[in-house]
Amino acid sequence: MFPMKTLNQLFEDSVLSYTENTLILEKRTDKYETFSYREIRKEVHRFAAGLLSLGIQKGDRIALFSEGRKDWVISELGILYAGAVNVPLSVRLAEPSELKFRLEHSGSRMIITSLNQSKKLESLKNQISCLEKIILLDPKDSYDEKELFFGNICSRGDELLDKSNEIFEERWLSVKPGDFANICYTSGTTADPKGILLTHRNYYVNVKQARSLMPVPEWYTTLLILPWDHAFAHTCGIYTVISAGASLASVQLGSTPMETLKNIPVNIKEIRPVFLLSVPALAKNFRKNIEKGIRDKGLIIEKLFRHALRIAYKYNGTGWDRGKGSGKLWKPILWLYDKILFRKIRENFGGRLKFFIGGGALLDIELQKFFYALLLDEIKIVNEAHVEKSAISLVKMFQILTGKVSAFITVFHLVIQ
Protein backbone atom coordinates (compact mmCIF):
# COMPACT_ATOMS: atom_id res chain seq x y z
CA MET A 1 0.00 0.00 0.00
CA PHE A 2 1.37 3.40 -0.97
CA PRO A 3 1.51 6.28 1.53
CA MET A 4 -1.40 8.71 1.26
CA LYS A 5 -0.77 12.25 0.10
CA THR A 6 -2.80 15.36 -0.59
CA LEU A 7 -3.36 16.82 -4.03
CA ASN A 8 -1.06 19.64 -2.94
CA GLN A 9 1.73 17.16 -2.31
CA LEU A 10 0.97 15.30 -5.54
CA PHE A 11 1.37 18.56 -7.46
CA GLU A 12 4.55 19.56 -5.63
CA ASP A 13 6.07 16.14 -6.36
CA SER A 14 5.27 16.50 -10.05
CA VAL A 15 6.74 20.00 -10.21
CA LEU A 16 9.93 18.66 -8.65
CA SER A 17 10.13 15.75 -11.09
CA TYR A 18 8.90 17.49 -14.26
CA THR A 19 9.83 21.12 -13.62
CA GLU A 20 10.10 22.37 -17.20
CA ASN A 21 7.60 19.98 -18.78
CA THR A 22 4.54 21.63 -20.27
CA LEU A 23 1.55 21.22 -17.99
CA ILE A 24 -1.06 23.37 -19.77
CA LEU A 25 -1.53 24.55 -23.34
CA GLU A 26 -3.96 27.41 -23.87
CA LYS A 27 -5.01 29.22 -27.03
CA ARG A 28 -6.24 32.75 -26.50
CA THR A 29 -5.16 34.30 -29.80
CA ASP A 30 -3.92 32.63 -32.98
CA LYS A 31 -1.72 29.90 -31.45
CA TYR A 32 -1.32 27.80 -28.35
CA GLU A 33 0.88 29.03 -25.52
CA THR A 34 2.62 26.55 -23.23
CA PHE A 35 2.93 26.83 -19.45
CA SER A 36 5.36 24.65 -17.52
CA TYR A 37 4.83 22.91 -14.21
CA ARG A 38 7.16 25.47 -12.63
CA GLU A 39 5.18 28.41 -14.02
CA ILE A 40 1.83 27.01 -12.92
CA ARG A 41 3.19 26.28 -9.44
CA LYS A 42 4.26 29.91 -9.06
CA GLU A 43 0.77 31.13 -9.98
CA VAL A 44 -0.88 28.60 -7.66
CA HIS A 45 1.22 29.81 -4.73
CA ARG A 46 0.47 33.46 -5.54
CA PHE A 47 -3.27 32.88 -5.74
CA ALA A 48 -3.41 30.71 -2.62
CA ALA A 49 -1.49 33.32 -0.65
CA GLY A 50 -3.88 35.96 -1.97
CA LEU A 51 -6.82 33.96 -0.65
CA LEU A 52 -5.14 33.79 2.75
CA SER A 53 -4.74 37.57 2.69
CA LEU A 54 -8.51 37.81 2.20
CA GLY A 55 -9.12 35.83 5.36
CA ILE A 56 -9.89 32.40 3.90
CA GLN A 57 -9.75 29.80 6.66
CA LYS A 58 -9.13 26.09 6.48
CA GLY A 59 -12.33 24.28 5.49
CA ASP A 60 -13.99 27.32 3.90
CA ARG A 61 -15.90 26.65 0.67
CA ILE A 62 -15.12 28.53 -2.54
CA ALA A 63 -17.08 27.87 -5.74
CA LEU A 64 -15.46 27.73 -9.18
CA PHE A 65 -17.70 28.63 -12.12
CA SER A 66 -15.75 28.87 -15.37
CA GLU A 67 -15.03 27.30 -18.71
CA GLY A 68 -11.95 25.06 -18.88
CA ARG A 69 -8.78 27.17 -19.03
CA LYS A 70 -5.38 27.58 -17.43
CA ASP A 71 -6.81 29.67 -14.59
CA TRP A 72 -9.28 26.88 -13.76
CA VAL A 73 -6.44 24.63 -12.64
CA ILE A 74 -4.65 27.50 -10.87
CA SER A 75 -7.87 28.41 -9.07
CA GLU A 76 -8.64 24.88 -7.88
CA LEU A 77 -5.10 24.21 -6.67
CA GLY A 78 -4.96 27.67 -5.09
CA ILE A 79 -8.14 26.88 -3.15
CA LEU A 80 -6.69 23.56 -2.00
CA TYR A 81 -3.35 25.10 -0.98
CA ALA A 82 -5.29 27.61 1.12
CA GLY A 83 -6.84 24.64 2.94
CA ALA A 84 -10.27 25.43 1.52
CA VAL A 85 -12.75 23.25 -0.38
CA ASN A 86 -13.51 23.79 -4.04
CA VAL A 87 -17.13 23.63 -5.22
CA PRO A 88 -16.82 23.18 -9.01
CA LEU A 89 -19.97 24.24 -10.86
CA SER A 90 -21.04 23.30 -14.37
CA VAL A 91 -21.14 26.14 -16.89
CA ARG A 92 -24.32 24.54 -18.22
CA LEU A 93 -26.17 25.83 -15.18
CA ALA A 94 -28.37 28.57 -16.56
CA GLU A 95 -31.19 29.14 -14.09
CA PRO A 96 -30.44 31.49 -11.18
CA SER A 97 -32.21 29.08 -8.84
CA GLU A 98 -29.74 26.30 -9.75
CA LEU A 99 -26.76 28.44 -8.87
CA LYS A 100 -28.40 29.86 -5.75
CA PHE A 101 -29.16 26.41 -4.37
CA ARG A 102 -25.60 25.15 -4.80
CA LEU A 103 -23.96 28.25 -3.39
CA GLU A 104 -26.23 28.34 -0.36
CA HIS A 105 -26.19 24.61 0.24
CA SER A 106 -22.38 24.49 0.12
CA GLY A 107 -22.03 27.67 2.17
CA SER A 108 -19.58 29.13 -0.34
CA ARG A 109 -17.93 32.31 0.94
CA MET A 110 -16.62 33.24 -2.51
CA ILE A 111 -17.07 32.27 -6.11
CA ILE A 112 -14.41 32.40 -8.82
CA THR A 113 -15.92 32.99 -12.26
CA SER A 114 -15.10 33.94 -15.83
CA LEU A 115 -16.53 37.14 -17.23
CA ASN A 116 -18.95 35.17 -19.45
CA GLN A 117 -20.36 33.15 -16.55
CA SER A 118 -20.44 36.12 -14.17
CA LYS A 119 -23.46 37.47 -16.03
CA LYS A 120 -25.51 34.61 -14.54
CA LEU A 121 -24.68 35.88 -11.06
CA GLU A 122 -25.85 39.46 -11.51
CA SER A 123 -29.32 38.90 -10.10
CA LEU A 124 -28.06 36.65 -7.29
CA LYS A 125 -25.03 38.24 -5.69
CA ASN A 126 -27.00 40.22 -3.14
CA GLN A 127 -29.48 37.40 -2.40
CA ILE A 128 -27.00 34.87 -1.00
CA SER A 129 -26.04 35.77 2.54
CA CYS A 130 -22.98 33.50 2.73
CA LEU A 131 -21.46 34.85 -0.50
CA GLU A 132 -18.94 37.55 0.40
CA LYS A 133 -16.93 38.06 -2.77
CA ILE A 134 -17.02 37.33 -6.50
CA ILE A 135 -13.55 36.80 -7.99
CA LEU A 136 -13.43 37.58 -11.70
CA LEU A 137 -10.84 35.73 -13.78
CA ASP A 138 -11.09 38.35 -16.52
CA PRO A 139 -10.62 42.12 -16.13
CA LYS A 140 -13.48 44.58 -16.56
CA ASP A 141 -13.76 48.35 -16.59
CA SER A 142 -15.18 48.71 -13.09
CA TYR A 143 -15.97 46.53 -10.08
CA ASP A 144 -18.64 46.82 -7.42
CA GLU A 145 -17.99 46.32 -3.71
CA LYS A 146 -18.41 42.52 -3.95
CA GLU A 147 -16.15 41.98 -6.95
CA LEU A 148 -12.41 41.35 -7.03
CA PHE A 149 -10.08 40.79 -9.98
CA PHE A 150 -8.11 37.54 -9.97
CA GLY A 151 -4.88 39.33 -10.91
CA ASN A 152 -5.18 41.71 -7.96
CA ILE A 153 -5.57 38.79 -5.58
CA CYS A 154 -2.36 37.28 -6.97
CA SER A 155 -0.63 40.62 -6.33
CA ARG A 156 -1.85 40.50 -2.72
CA GLY A 157 -0.41 37.01 -2.61
CA ASP A 158 2.99 38.33 -3.69
CA GLU A 159 2.99 40.65 -0.70
CA LEU A 160 2.14 37.88 1.75
CA LEU A 161 4.76 35.55 0.27
CA ASP A 162 7.41 38.28 0.56
CA LYS A 163 6.58 39.31 4.11
CA SER A 164 5.08 36.22 5.75
CA ASN A 165 5.89 33.18 3.63
CA GLU A 166 5.74 30.97 6.73
CA ILE A 167 1.96 31.61 6.96
CA PHE A 168 1.49 30.19 3.47
CA GLU A 169 3.83 27.24 4.09
CA GLU A 170 2.12 26.37 7.35
CA ARG A 171 -1.33 26.45 5.77
CA TRP A 172 -0.72 24.28 2.71
CA LEU A 173 1.33 21.79 4.71
CA SER A 174 -1.45 21.54 7.30
CA VAL A 175 -3.83 19.98 4.76
CA LYS A 176 -4.28 16.25 5.39
CA PRO A 177 -5.30 13.44 2.99
CA GLY A 178 -8.62 13.07 4.80
CA ASP A 179 -9.53 16.74 4.39
CA PHE A 180 -12.25 17.61 1.89
CA ALA A 181 -11.05 18.76 -1.52
CA ASN A 182 -14.32 19.13 -3.46
CA ILE A 183 -18.06 19.24 -3.13
CA CYS A 184 -19.35 17.99 -6.49
CA TYR A 185 -23.07 18.37 -7.15
CA THR A 186 -25.28 15.91 -8.98
CA SER A 187 -27.46 17.20 -11.80
CA GLY A 188 -30.63 17.29 -9.72
CA THR A 189 -32.88 15.99 -12.49
CA THR A 190 -35.22 14.07 -10.16
CA ALA A 191 -34.76 15.96 -6.86
CA ASP A 192 -32.57 18.62 -5.29
CA PRO A 193 -28.91 18.19 -6.28
CA LYS A 194 -26.76 16.23 -3.85
CA GLY A 195 -23.36 17.54 -2.80
CA ILE A 196 -20.79 14.74 -3.00
CA LEU A 197 -17.95 15.27 -0.50
CA LEU A 198 -14.59 14.16 -1.91
CA THR A 199 -11.34 14.14 0.01
CA HIS A 200 -7.77 14.57 -1.15
CA ARG A 201 -7.42 10.85 -0.46
CA ASN A 202 -10.25 10.03 -2.89
CA TYR A 203 -8.43 11.71 -5.75
CA TYR A 204 -4.97 10.52 -4.78
CA VAL A 205 -6.01 6.86 -4.59
CA ASN A 206 -7.81 7.15 -7.94
CA VAL A 207 -4.68 8.46 -9.59
CA LYS A 208 -2.23 6.05 -7.99
CA GLN A 209 -4.24 2.92 -8.69
CA ALA A 210 -5.04 4.02 -12.23
CA ARG A 211 -1.40 4.68 -13.06
CA SER A 212 -0.33 1.38 -11.55
CA LEU A 213 -2.30 -0.28 -14.35
CA MET A 214 -1.73 2.12 -17.22
CA PRO A 215 1.65 3.76 -17.79
CA VAL A 216 1.21 7.43 -18.78
CA PRO A 217 4.49 8.67 -20.29
CA GLU A 218 5.31 12.32 -19.70
CA TRP A 219 5.07 13.06 -23.43
CA TYR A 220 1.34 12.22 -23.46
CA THR A 221 -0.99 15.11 -24.24
CA THR A 222 -4.76 15.39 -24.14
CA LEU A 223 -7.22 18.01 -25.31
CA LEU A 224 -9.71 18.24 -22.46
CA ILE A 225 -12.96 18.73 -24.34
CA LEU A 226 -15.29 17.85 -21.46
CA PRO A 227 -16.36 20.42 -18.86
CA TRP A 228 -13.55 20.48 -16.33
CA ASP A 229 -15.89 20.18 -13.35
CA HIS A 230 -17.10 16.85 -14.78
CA ALA A 231 -16.25 13.88 -12.55
CA PHE A 232 -14.64 12.05 -15.46
CA ALA A 233 -12.56 14.95 -16.79
CA HIS A 234 -11.58 16.21 -13.36
CA THR A 235 -9.99 12.97 -12.25
CA CYS A 236 -8.67 11.45 -15.49
CA GLY A 237 -8.02 14.61 -17.47
CA ILE A 238 -6.38 16.77 -14.80
CA TYR A 239 -4.91 14.88 -11.84
CA THR A 240 -3.82 11.73 -13.66
CA VAL A 241 -2.09 13.97 -16.20
CA ILE A 242 -0.43 16.05 -13.48
CA SER A 243 0.81 13.00 -11.62
CA ALA A 244 2.54 11.74 -14.79
CA GLY A 245 4.21 14.99 -15.79
CA ALA A 246 2.10 14.96 -18.95
CA SER A 247 0.24 17.83 -20.63
CA LEU A 248 -3.37 18.96 -21.00
CA ALA A 249 -4.74 21.51 -23.43
CA SER A 250 -7.91 23.54 -23.19
CA VAL A 251 -10.32 24.15 -26.04
CA GLN A 252 -10.09 27.68 -27.41
CA LEU A 253 -12.98 29.64 -25.97
CA GLY A 254 -15.39 31.31 -28.35
CA SER A 255 -17.77 34.17 -27.73
CA THR A 256 -20.62 31.63 -27.47
CA PRO A 257 -20.78 27.95 -26.41
CA MET A 258 -21.49 26.97 -30.03
CA GLU A 259 -18.40 28.83 -31.22
CA THR A 260 -16.33 26.99 -28.61
CA LEU A 261 -17.69 23.65 -29.86
CA LYS A 262 -16.71 24.56 -33.40
CA ASN A 263 -13.14 25.10 -32.23
CA ILE A 264 -12.77 21.48 -31.10
CA PRO A 265 -11.94 19.92 -34.52
CA VAL A 266 -9.38 22.64 -35.22
CA ASN A 267 -7.81 22.31 -31.77
CA ILE A 268 -7.58 18.52 -32.09
CA LYS A 269 -5.46 18.93 -35.23
CA GLU A 270 -3.28 21.51 -33.48
CA ILE A 271 -2.73 19.59 -30.25
CA ARG A 272 -2.57 16.08 -31.76
CA PRO A 273 -3.77 14.42 -28.54
CA VAL A 274 -2.62 10.95 -27.52
CA PHE A 275 -5.89 10.29 -25.70
CA LEU A 276 -9.33 11.88 -25.66
CA LEU A 277 -12.03 11.72 -23.02
CA SER A 278 -15.55 11.85 -24.37
CA VAL A 279 -19.20 11.34 -23.45
CA PRO A 280 -21.96 9.99 -25.74
CA ALA A 281 -23.20 13.41 -26.87
CA LEU A 282 -19.73 14.38 -28.10
CA ALA A 283 -19.19 10.99 -29.72
CA LYS A 284 -22.44 11.48 -31.66
CA ASN A 285 -21.23 14.88 -32.85
CA PHE A 286 -17.93 13.38 -33.97
CA ARG A 287 -19.79 10.77 -36.03
CA LYS A 288 -22.17 13.37 -37.46
CA ASN A 289 -19.27 15.58 -38.61
CA ILE A 290 -17.36 12.62 -40.08
CA GLU A 291 -20.38 11.50 -42.08
CA LYS A 292 -21.07 15.04 -43.29
CA GLY A 293 -17.49 15.33 -44.50
CA ILE A 294 -17.88 12.07 -46.42
CA ARG A 295 -21.17 13.19 -48.02
CA ASP A 296 -19.59 16.46 -49.08
CA LYS A 297 -17.06 14.51 -51.17
CA GLY A 298 -19.76 13.10 -53.40
CA LEU A 299 -21.92 10.03 -53.92
CA ILE A 300 -19.12 7.69 -55.01
CA ILE A 301 -17.01 8.36 -51.93
CA GLU A 302 -20.09 8.00 -49.72
CA LYS A 303 -20.92 4.61 -51.23
CA LEU A 304 -17.32 3.45 -50.78
CA PHE A 305 -17.41 4.58 -47.17
CA ARG A 306 -20.66 2.72 -46.45
CA HIS A 307 -19.27 -0.42 -48.01
CA ALA A 308 -16.05 -0.05 -46.04
CA LEU A 309 -18.07 0.20 -42.81
CA ARG A 310 -20.00 -2.98 -43.65
CA ILE A 311 -16.76 -4.85 -44.29
CA ALA A 312 -15.27 -3.52 -41.05
CA TYR A 313 -18.33 -4.57 -39.07
CA LYS A 314 -18.07 -8.11 -40.47
CA TYR A 315 -14.36 -8.31 -39.72
CA ASN A 316 -14.63 -6.82 -36.22
CA GLY A 317 -17.53 -8.97 -35.06
CA THR A 318 -18.35 -8.13 -31.45
CA GLY A 319 -14.76 -7.21 -30.60
CA TRP A 320 -13.50 -10.29 -28.82
CA ASP A 321 -13.85 -12.39 -31.99
CA ARG A 322 -12.33 -9.78 -34.31
CA GLY A 323 -10.70 -11.33 -37.36
CA LYS A 324 -11.57 -14.85 -36.27
CA GLY A 325 -13.31 -17.56 -38.23
CA SER A 326 -14.72 -16.41 -41.56
CA GLY A 327 -14.11 -12.79 -40.52
CA LYS A 328 -10.43 -13.06 -41.41
CA LEU A 329 -11.37 -13.33 -45.09
CA TRP A 330 -12.22 -9.62 -45.05
CA LYS A 331 -8.80 -8.48 -43.85
CA PRO A 332 -7.18 -7.71 -47.27
CA ILE A 333 -10.04 -5.52 -48.49
CA LEU A 334 -10.31 -3.85 -45.07
CA TRP A 335 -6.60 -3.05 -45.24
CA LEU A 336 -7.20 -1.34 -48.59
CA TYR A 337 -10.13 0.68 -47.27
CA ASP A 338 -8.02 1.69 -44.31
CA LYS A 339 -5.37 3.07 -46.65
CA ILE A 340 -7.73 5.07 -48.84
CA LEU A 341 -10.44 6.11 -46.36
CA PHE A 342 -10.14 5.36 -42.66
CA ARG A 343 -6.56 6.54 -42.22
CA LYS A 344 -7.43 9.94 -43.65
CA ILE A 345 -10.26 10.24 -41.13
CA ARG A 346 -7.87 9.36 -38.30
CA GLU A 347 -5.54 12.12 -39.44
CA ASN A 348 -8.28 14.59 -38.49
CA PHE A 349 -7.68 13.48 -34.89
CA GLY A 350 -4.06 14.58 -35.14
CA GLY A 351 -2.40 11.31 -36.05
CA ARG A 352 -1.22 10.39 -32.51
CA LEU A 353 -4.47 9.21 -30.93
CA LYS A 354 -4.02 5.96 -28.99
CA PHE A 355 -6.99 5.98 -26.61
CA PHE A 356 -10.57 7.13 -27.14
CA ILE A 357 -12.21 6.85 -23.73
CA GLY A 358 -15.96 7.21 -23.31
CA GLY A 359 -17.56 7.76 -19.93
CA GLY A 360 -20.47 9.35 -18.12
CA ALA A 361 -23.12 7.14 -19.72
CA LEU A 362 -23.41 4.06 -21.88
CA LEU A 363 -22.18 4.59 -25.43
CA ASP A 364 -24.68 3.23 -27.95
CA ILE A 365 -23.51 -0.03 -29.56
CA GLU A 366 -23.81 1.45 -33.07
CA LEU A 367 -21.48 4.28 -32.12
CA GLN A 368 -19.02 1.80 -30.65
CA LYS A 369 -19.05 -0.26 -33.85
CA PHE A 370 -18.62 2.89 -35.94
CA PHE A 371 -15.54 4.16 -34.13
CA TYR A 372 -14.09 0.68 -33.84
CA ALA A 373 -14.34 0.38 -37.63
CA LEU A 374 -12.58 3.70 -38.23
CA LEU A 375 -9.85 3.36 -35.66
CA LEU A 376 -8.92 -0.29 -36.16
CA ASP A 377 -5.83 -1.63 -34.38
CA GLU A 378 -4.17 1.66 -33.66
CA ILE A 379 -6.55 2.97 -31.03
CA LYS A 380 -8.16 1.35 -28.03
CA ILE A 381 -11.78 2.34 -27.42
CA VAL A 382 -13.06 2.15 -23.88
CA ASN A 383 -16.67 2.59 -22.95
CA GLU A 384 -17.68 2.98 -19.34
CA ALA A 385 -21.34 3.14 -18.39
CA HIS A 386 -20.75 5.55 -15.54
CA VAL A 387 -17.61 7.08 -14.10
CA GLU A 388 -17.76 7.43 -10.35
CA LYS A 389 -15.39 9.15 -7.99
CA SER A 390 -13.96 5.96 -6.57
CA ALA A 391 -10.60 4.30 -6.85
CA ILE A 392 -12.09 1.04 -8.05
CA SER A 393 -13.87 2.77 -10.93
CA LEU A 394 -10.64 4.10 -12.38
CA VAL A 395 -8.87 0.83 -11.74
CA LYS A 396 -11.54 -0.88 -13.82
CA MET A 397 -11.17 1.64 -16.61
CA PHE A 398 -7.43 1.32 -16.90
CA GLN A 399 -7.53 -2.45 -16.59
CA ILE A 400 -9.49 -2.37 -19.81
CA LEU A 401 -7.17 0.13 -21.46
CA THR A 402 -4.19 -2.11 -20.91
CA GLY A 403 -5.94 -5.38 -21.59
CA LYS A 404 -5.61 -6.36 -17.94
CA VAL A 405 -9.23 -7.36 -17.70
CA SER A 406 -10.59 -9.18 -14.67
CA ALA A 407 -14.01 -9.95 -13.23
CA PHE A 408 -14.58 -6.20 -13.03
CA ILE A 409 -15.38 -6.30 -16.73
CA THR A 410 -19.00 -7.18 -16.00
CA VAL A 411 -19.90 -3.52 -15.42
CA PHE A 412 -18.57 -2.44 -18.80
CA HIS A 413 -19.53 -2.89 -22.40
CA LEU A 414 -16.14 -3.70 -23.87
CA VAL A 415 -15.46 -3.13 -27.52
CA ILE A 416 -11.72 -3.78 -27.74
CA GLN A 417 -9.73 -5.99 -25.44
How does this structure look, described?
This protein is an alpha/beta fold and 417 residues long. It is 47% helix and 15% strand. It is built from 14 helices and 14 strands. The strands form 4 sheets. A 5-stranded parallel β-sheet has the order 4-3-5-6-7, with helices on both faces. Strands 2-1-11-10 form a 4-stranded mixed β-sheet, with helices on both faces. Strands 12-13-14 form a 3-stranded parallel β-sheet, with helices on both faces. Strand 3 (61-65), helix 3 and strand 4 (85-88) form a beta-alpha-beta unit. The model is unreliable at 383-417 (pLDDT under 50).
List keywords for this structure.
elongated, 2 domains, alpha/beta, 47% helix, Rossmann fold, disordered C terminus, five-stranded parallel sheet, 417 residues
The class by helix and strand makeup works out as alpha/beta
* Terminal residue distance: 28 Å
The largest sheet, given as strand count, sense and whether it forms a barrel, is:
5 strands, parallel
CATH top-level class of the largest domain:
Alpha Beta
The assigned CATH architecture of the largest domain is 3-Layer(aba) Sandwich
Give the spatial strand order of the biggest sheet. 4-3-5-6-7
How many H/I helical runs?
Answer: 14
Tell me the count of domains.
2
What gross morphology would you assign? elongated
